[in-house]
Design a protein that fits this description.
The structure is a homodimer. Chain A is 36% helix and 19% strand. Chain A is α/β, with parallel strands linked by helices. Chain A starts with a strand and ends in a 5-residue tail after the last strand.
Chain lengths: 392, 392
């Protein structure tokens, strides 16, 4: 019987972290060992806090560390991953960080399982084919409309047929400035490219503030308006959706299947965006993809970091042909690019697809990762609960 | 101007932690210093992970440590607490543990504000009177129906007119055993006491499994069935509510206002239970109380730990006369009882109320707390981000 022998966390970081909304500045790599094989995953989450949630002392029966439900467990098939997930849901019910920690571990378990079966993960999930996806260049707005324009020109120069601008100054100064950014993006891209706009929850639950931007978004032909509100502000989503011809997109903040389901049913989003590194991994993301497909909502991955995370995020909807849009990190920090030897590059037609190689099909560049490794030590009652390895 | 000068965390624990569902086995005390005054709060959360979320390195602009939004901030009135909360919602958006960490800090800020104004917190919240609440003895089911019976007899002997049994074996063996526990509880209590049943999310989202228990719950006259499902399984709640004459209760897992709102609107619960130590503190809990009141749903505190947590949990609905039920720790671990000098004891009629003293009105027994203090040290890049104080 194959058992989970070890789970190791590697906290990687750029030397300097800035306040820009760029999630590729650090990473939490997860390596799982079972039956002589290794699997790799990544949490899209605070590395230190996620590590703490794996090793923390138990507080009571429903507030146990994630590690207690993982280490030593059987890993023969997908049903074992589901079983461990259900165990964590009960035994770490009161440990809020648990889904973020578990996500990276879960991804690594799928990778390992795929290697054991010599199958890509999407095949184990039941798909027969990995369909092409149209990658959109995902990037932050410039500080000024002129910078946003330049970035759009650059994305076009690199032949991206779809581009997303997000965060940055939007909602932080005035309506007119936001409109100038929106227009600059469209102008720089030209009229044919798909253009998505992401405002990073800036309006909280304020429907009126978000609604003011709708005419400009319609004018530039935005495919979607992403995250106008807090992930849980379902009523605000529903209210804005009712008055908007531009579809809404959200979901990256969902940390379980139900949250994504409710964004679809109660929030009336047209695009559901799932980060496998937060929602509890590939299993619940697949469940969201199936649900979205049945409800006529388009599934999109949320990925702003490495190509390991990108590969994981493609698996849940690899076989859904009509869900074609794919978030693709456009200008990640060197860390995010360098820590994998394999990459999911665009083909000559500008498309990407989930790989045919076993597992997630991504080889880790341990030497590169080592250069970004952050030293962490956590002691409780003078006992070392976590000390980062000096090697990967 | 009064500014937040310091926030200190004290991780307290019983010498031994068991897997029983008893949340009083450890505690995370929070002390805030501002303008020469001290305020105290408590997180109902994993202490180590919650501390890590206060001190962790920033990952990017929307994944900053909670401390970055708190330390040095102005604290003149409730609007400052709301401002800091909104800041955390944006700047720690991707830090899942943040609401649990912030909850204890927020409570301490209210305590401090009350002391500065020489007013109880419920007055600052706008209430003119602190109405009596009927405390229910909150305890775990016994391992056997005979033990459950004995515990019910003991609660009756101590003159509790309302009792809740929860967790333990329910849903873990078979239907018949569960029914025997339910019947034993009613038998031991006698026919007059209010009896609530809490099954601790054991059915996940399985409506049929929960529904099987309804006839027995009706027979014993249960006031409510608490947490049959995962906090986010709103459809399961709604579906069970539709077929149940026994009202549903839930909410302790809500970590923001919206989650509680959706349990009311989409989950159709009849009782909304809020833990101030998880939902983001007293501010969002008051918002839930107002919402519940407007919707004809009964607000109930969730409290299983100290009388500091109990006092905090009473504030949001102190002035709502018709919301009379109050969860009251019945047999907490010594830690939870000893760490406060003041207690909210039942009066001769068996009622409790939020205190008239300034702030939360609870004095901390620092000497007792010291006996339970757990030594913690967190280092990142050989820099100590947190080292527990040797004194309180």
């Amino acid at each position: 019987m194959r058992k989970i022998d070890a789970v190791d966390f590697f906290y990687l970081s750029m030397p300097e972290i800035t306040t820009e909304g760029d999630g590729s500045q650090d990473a939490l790599l997860v390596r799982v060992a079972a039956g002589g094989l290794l699997g790799w995953g990544e949490c899209e989450a605070s590395p230190l806090v996620s590590i703490a949630a794996f090793v923390c002392p138990m507080s009571h029966g429903a507030c146990r560390p994630v590690g207690a439900s993982v280490l030593g467990q059987r890993l023969e098939g997908p049903e074992d991953i589901a079983r461990i997930a259900a165990q964590i849901e009960l035994d770490s019910m009161d440990l809020l960080q648990a889904p973020h920690t578990w996500s990276g571990v879960e991804i690594a378990l799928w990778d390992l399982l795929g290697k054991a079966r010599e199958q890509p993960v999407w095949q184990i999930l039941g798909y027969r084919e990995s369909f092409r996806k149209l990658p959109y260049a995902s990037q932050l707005f410039g500080d000024t409309p002129a910078q946003t324009y330049q970035q759009a020109v650059e994305a076009r120069r690199q032949s991206f047929r779809a581009v997303k601008f997000g965060w940055g100054p939007i909602g932080r100064s005035d309506l007119q400035t936001d409109i100038e950014h929106f227009s600059a993006a469209r102008e720089g891209l030209g009229k044919d490219a798909l253009l998505m706009i992401d405002v990073g929850q800036i309006f909280g639950d304020d429907v009126a503030a978000a609604a003011e931007r709708l005419p400009a978004l319609k004018r530039i032909g935005a495919v979607w308006l992403e995250e106008p509100f807090h992930t849980s502000a379902l009523n605000s989503y529903a209210s804005l959706a009712k008055q908007s011809s531009v579809k809404l997109a959200a979901g990256e903040g969902a940390h379980n299947f139900h949250m994504a389901q409710h964004l679809i049913d109660f929030g009336q989003v047209g695009y559901i965006q799932v980060d496998c590194g937060r929602i509890g991994g590939i299993g619940p993301a697949k469940r969201v993809a199936d649900y979205a497909n049945a409800k006529g909502v388009t599934f999109v991955n949320h990925t702003f970091t490495s190509h390991l995370a990108l590969s994981a995020s493609l698996q849940p909807y690899a076989g859904l042909r009509s869900h074609e849009i794919c978030e693709y990190p456009f200008a990640p920090k060197p860390l995010a690019r360098e820590i994998t030897l394999s990459h999911i590059d665009r083909n000559k037609d500008g498309y990407v697809s989930a790989l045919e190689a076993p597992g997630l099909g991504i080889e880790i560049n341990t030497e590169a990762a080592l250069r970004y490794l952050v030293d962490v030590e956590i002691q409780v009652r003078s006992k070392v609960l976590f000390a980062s390895s000096k090697q990967i």
